[in-house]
Design a protein that fits this description.
With 382 residues, the protein is of the alpha/beta class. Helices cover 45% and strands 19% of the residues. The protein has two domains: 200 residues, 3-Layer(aba) Sandwich (Rossmann fold), CATH 3.40.50; 130 residues, Response regulator (Rossmann fold, 3-Layer(aba) Sandwich), CATH 3.40.50.2300.
């Protein structure tokens, strides 16, 4: 029995030593970047785009020699658009060895995970978590516009391009993303000569029948309906608007991106729909053309804004790591501290902006763009 105990003790000691040696090598051989988002469920178009596009960027960087001489190890996890599961995905990525998080994809999940990255002092860059509270911790940055910025920029674009002066809005009052954009849009609208004649709310419990909201907009005589919502609800609204014979313009934000990829959606319903986005897949610059070609070849579809945000996010991480002269053997907390400073000192030319810079409060600065859906495709608006 004594020999058996000695054998077990020896085996445990050897295993612990091997584990420590493995962890040391594991931490030093590459930069480990994790990504998370909904890869299944109703918002899978968002998360899948993020994980796929980040993979393209990682492959490009590795093929070009990596970062500071080190390769990138990369892994994506599914959070199913659920805050609790997003924490599970984060923990799974940590167990895998993640040092930097690209994600989560959506606001609610990004906020939930931000509490964990704060506790771990891990650098977090969300491609598309647009809620105002996402970046409240100093270790969290984003690539996309914040909700208030999206609302203000939408009002600016509609007003400056004279798309309408009398507008209605349909938004989800139970969703922070939707309600936040609507509030900032309404606040900015008068500055651009826009009268928000009617605003119509719905909730997660009443998001299948929009006939009442559409009728209110029709009765108010609006020229345009602002939709700061997700593409799933927008598809239903467009279907019901056609059934009612309602002839108005529709303008949305990044939540509408992905609508054309919905299963069994009649794309003609979206004809003429406009949305604010920093990315247009039909742009003729070399960076966009090359990215779109690679994405289509790899995944058989046209990339959306979420994909572009993720691609730029990986390159922002690369630029910040190079600026900080970081190495993968650094402690996660030390790496985070270095990146928090470095990201405010870099400038990248990306898919979502010719000149993207970041402020210490986590926000990007870049010019907005808009696209219109024509013949089942996104077309740049001037």
């Amino acid at each position: 029995m004594k020999k058996m105990k000695q054998f077990v003790s020896l085996m445990l000691t050897s295993a612990m030593a091997a584990g420590m040696m493995s962890a040391s090598v594991f931490a030093a051989d590459a930069f480990y970047i994790g990504a998370s988002g909904p890869l299944t469920g109703p918002a899978a178009n968002y998360g899948t785009a993020v994980v796929n596009a980040a993979q393209i960027a990682v492959d490009e960087i590795n093929e070009a020699g990596g970062i500071n001489g080190y390769q990138i190890e990369y892994k994506g996890e599914d959070d199913e658009l659920d805050s609790e599961k997003s924490v599970n995905a984060y923990n799974a990525l940590k167990d895998w060895g993640m040092q930097i998080l690209l994600g989560p994809t959506t606001t609610g999940c990004a906020i939930a995970v931000a509490e964990k990255t704060k506790a771990d002092n891990m650098f977090q860059l969300t491609p598309s978590g647009s809620g105002e509270d996402v970046t409240k911790n100093d270790n969290v940055f984003r690539v996309c516009f914040s909700d208030p910025s999206q609302g203000m920029r939408s009002a600016q674009y509609i007003g400056e391009h004279q798309l309408a002066t009398k507008v209605g809005s349909i938004y989800d009052s139970s969703d922070a993303y939707s309600a936040g954009i609507e509030a900032s849009f309404e606040a900015a609208a008068p500055d651009y000569g826009i009268d928000v004649a009617v605003k119509c709310a719905f909730t997660a419990d009443s998001n299948t029948d929009f006939s009442s909201q559409l009728q209110q907009c029709a009765d108010a005589g609006v020229e345009l309906i602002f939709l700061p919502i997700y593409y799933t609800q927008a598809g239903t609204i467009l279907t019901q608007a056609r059934m009612m014979g309602l002839d108005v313009k529709f303008f949305g934000c990044d939540g509408l991106d992905g609508m054309l990829d919905m299963d069994n959606f009649e794309k003609s319903l979206a004809e003429g729909v406009m949305l604010l986005t920093p990315f247009a897949a039909d742009a003729d610059d070399d960076l966009t053309k090359n990215f779109v070609a690679k994405y289509q070849e790899a995944y058989g579809m046209t990339p959306n804004q979420f994909a572009a945000d993720a691609y730029d996010g990986v390159y922002a991480i690369k630029a910040a790591l190079e600026k900080a002269e970081a190495t993968p053997d650094m402690e996660i907390s030390d790496l985070c501290e270095a990146l928090k400073t470095a990201i405010t000192e870099i400038e990248i030319a990306g898919l979502t902006g010719e000149k993207i810079v970041w402020t210490a409060d986590g926000e990007p600065n870049k010019d907005p763009k808009a696209v219109v859906i024509q013949d089942g495709a996104y077309v740049s608006m001037q």
